[in-house]
Every structure is written in structure tokens, then in C-alpha cells.
């Protein structure tokens, strides 16, 4: 019979997600960023000391503070709802009625199972039902949901759901192609594999519309 610890390891190694939302506690923001940095700093110090590292060495004495600041201010900054980008939309006055695709959006996230990087590209598209959104806002929405401990399937869904809400339409799609260092650098150590996830809403569920979107992704952009 599999014990609980082995079961949790199996979930992590197989990259399962138990929740469509990030598992954040209700008291997650009771502490200020500075208070979180101080607590995490001590935890990182303990990890390094347990591993036998000499924290008096000039090279790593500042590492606990650097890591703590990086966690709170940078790579997990998307956990903080106050950092959510304002998704301003505008009337589609020029009556553009075709698909708009923002492809090759650089994506940096972190696997919530091993806290190792996820690096890849996101491709996002929508068909306006009367509202349009600034191109850079699409990039910022991808970045916001990526900057947290994540599962790629959930991230893909969150990007689509956020754009659907902002634009007032179901006609939104997202494809993400990314490398997971928890697969590439540990475990099976397969450096060639990548993971592709997709979410198609509204008109993108139609095979012809979906094919048009996927064909746009394949276009090579050279200037």
C-alpha cells in the first residue's frame, strides 16, 4: 500500500494539479513583503547551513537575502493580487473582425512541485465582440499568472479566463510550449522534451478557427 509521502511524491513527479486555482491560504497577505523577506531569509539560511555551506564566505553570505527578495518581489510576485495588471479595453471603433494573435510571448514560471523553472512561449489570440485590449496588456497578463508556483495546465486556463473576463467574450485561445527543468535537469533528465498545453474558448472550439490560429503560430517572424 502506498504511503502518503510516496503518494505526494507521485503527484509531483507526474505534475498533477489538484486545483484549478492556485492553492493560496486566506491569510497569505497578512504579512508585508518586508516581513515575508525576513522570514524566508532565515529559512534559506537554515537550508544552506543544513547542507553544510559556510555562510561566512563572501560569495554566499548575501544569498539568503537575495533569494528571499527574489521570491517575494520577482518570481512569485504574481501571487499578490495588488500586482494584477489593469486590463484596460477599448471600443473596437475600426470594426476589426478577424482574429488577433499575440505569439511568442516569453514565459518564465516556476513548477509548484519542485520549485524549478518553467521556460517557454505563450501564444494568445482573441476575436473581438466589440472590445479590444492593448497588445502589451496580453503580455502582462501572461507574466502575472506565470509569476507564481504553477502548473502549466492551470496557467493556460487562467490566461484565457482573464482575457475572456476583460474582453467580455468567450472567443479567446492560448497555447503554451515550455520546458520544465524539473523534467530536463532532474528525474528523467530529458533535455529535449517540452510540454504543450492549450485552452480554446468560444469560436476557437470550431476546428477551422482553431486551425487558423495554430497556423498563425507556425509563421516565422523575421525582420
Automatic annotation (TrEMBL):
The record lists the membrane-crossing segments as: none
Q: Which Gene3D superfamilies match?
A: 1.10.286.10, 3.30.1130.10
Q: Which residues bind Zn(2+)?
A: 111, 114, 182
Q: Name one GO cellular component term.
A: cytoplasm
The answer to whether keyword rRNA-binding applies is: no
Q: Which family does it belong to?
A: Belongs to the GTP cyclohydrolase I family.
Catalytic activity as recorded in UniProt: GTP + H2O = 7,8-dihydroneopterin 3'-triphosphate + formate + H(+)
Task: Name a single GO biological process.
Answer: tetrahydrobiopterin biosynthetic process
Q: How does it assemble?
A: Homopolymer.
Q: Which organism is it from?
A: Flavobacterium geliluteum
Q: In the record, what lineage is assigned to the organism producing the protein?
A: Bacteria, Pseudomonadati, Bacteroidota, Flavobacteriia, Flavobacteriales
Q: Give the record's keywords alphabetically.
A: GTP-binding, Hydrolase, Metal-binding, Nucleotide-binding, One-carbon metabolism, Zinc
**Enzyme Commission number(s) of this protein:** 3.5.4.16
Q: Does the keyword Lyase apply?
A: no
UniProt cross-references to InterPro entries, sorted A to Z: GTP-CH-I_C/QueF, GTP-CH-I_N, GTP_CycHdrlase_I, GTP_CycHdrlase_I_CS, GTP_CycHdrlase_I_dom
Single GO MF descriptor:
GTP binding
Give the matching HAMAP family. FolE (MF_00223)
Output this protein's name: GTP cyclohydrolase 1
Q: Which pathway does it take part in?
A: Cofactor biosynthesis; 7,8-dihydroneopterin triphosphate biosynthesis; 7,8-dihydroneopterin triphosphate from GTP: step 1/1
Amino acid at each position: 500500500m502506498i504511503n502518503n509521502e510516496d503518494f505526494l511524491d507521485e503527484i509531483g513527479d507526474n505534475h498533477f494539479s489538484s486545483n484549478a486555482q492556485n492553492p493560496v491560504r486566506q491569510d497569505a497577505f497578512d504579512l508585508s513583503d518586508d516581513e515575508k523577506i525576513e522570514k524566508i531569509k532565515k529559512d534559506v539560511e537554515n537550508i544552506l547551513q543544513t547542507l553544510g555551506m559556510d555562510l561566512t564566505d563572501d560569495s554566499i553570505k548575501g544569498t539568503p537575502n537575495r533569494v528571499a527578495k527574489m521570491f517575494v518581489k520577482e518570481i512569485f510576485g504574481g501571487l499578490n493580487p495588488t500586482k494584477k495588471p489593469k486590463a484596460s479595453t477599448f471600443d473596437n471603433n475600426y470594426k476589426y473582425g478577424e482574429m488577433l494573435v499575440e505569439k511568442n510571448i516569453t514565459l518564465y514560471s516556476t513548477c509548484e512541485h519542485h520549485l524549478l523553472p518553467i521556460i517557454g512561449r505563450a501564444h494568445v489570440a482573441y476575436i473581438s465582440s466589440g472590445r479590444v485590449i492593448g497588445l502589451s496588456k496580453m503580455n502582462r497578463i501572461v507574466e502575472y499568472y506565470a509569476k507564481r508556483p504553477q502548473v502549466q495546465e492551470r496557467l493556460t486556463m487562467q490566461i484565457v479566463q482573464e482575457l475572456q473576463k476583460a474582453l467580455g467574450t468567450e472567443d479567446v485561445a492560448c497555447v503554451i510550449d515550455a520546458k520544465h527543468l524539473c523534467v530536463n535537469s532532474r528525474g528523467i533528465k530529458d533535455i529535449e522534451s517540452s510540454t504543450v498545453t492549450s485552452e480554446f474558448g468560444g469560436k476557437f472550439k470550431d476546428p477551422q478557427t482553431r486551425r487558423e490560429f495554430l497556423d498563425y503560430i507556425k509563421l516565422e517572424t523575421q525582420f
